[in-house]
Amino acid sequence: xxxxxxxxxxxxxxVNLLPPLHLPDDLEKARQLPLPPTETSEYVHxxxxxxxxxxxxxxxxxxxxxxxxxxxxxxxxxxIHGGGYVLGHPDADDALCESFVQAADCVVISPDYRLAxxxxxxxxxxxxxxxxxxxxxxxEELNIDxxxxxxxxxxxxxxxxxxxxxxxxxxxxxxxxxxMPLYPMIDDRNITPSSHEIxxxxxxxxxxxxxxxxxYLGEHAKGDISPYAAxxxxxxxxxxxxxxxxxxxxxxxxxxxxxxxxxxxHAGVDVEFQLYPGCYHGFEHVVPTAEISRRARxxxxxxxxxxxxx
Length: 310
Known about the structure:
two-stranded parallel sheet; 8 strands
């Protein structure tokens, strides 16, 4: 059975809309692709700040918050964009971050972390940790509730989210109340059935995944791989914050996501997991109007809102 025949009907149009990507050859071309236009919400205020990154260089963060704030401290989400560790920018998730603000009545901070191959591991995760430290140290200025700090991301952003939960646990903070690694890129070994199964050039596939991991790991690719690079390699998942995750059945990350969710549960971590049949990688962004896309997006937005309820 070929790939397209397995895709749910309402998502098939999206396969034809996706530009072909062949890493690493198409990396620069993909980085230059314009973002689709989005409407700015009248209920969300957006600012940009330069903060200290993991090194001496400054890092851009985008801050989304409700326009009307009553003065009470709000929960906060550190949202990490995707892109295979080699692509992406916070701008691409403007509409999603605004949805988080409106649904969960929270502040969202999204960092422009460094990308591979120019900046291989550990640059990206250390930038994300620096952003987490900054937002917690600036809690009074941002008027956020330190007892309700969440982290999230999709794809490579989901991988960085999972790695950040491990790093914060192992370094003794900051405290995280909830993690949301959506269809995360967390296993560099590419040995699962789904990592072999999804090879169609129209979606994120095995070839691009192998190439992206090589660029991200750099000189570490043939040595000992840190769980902060590939969280599937972590031996101990105990003591991590409650989690929500989801994945499409036609996503190369299907099996690593399912295994990670099960391991979190086995380690005593509360975890909610959703599997969407007939859905490929990032489907809810490719065809956002499809019923299954709305259901998936509402599922994780609602999970975040529930996590913040006290």
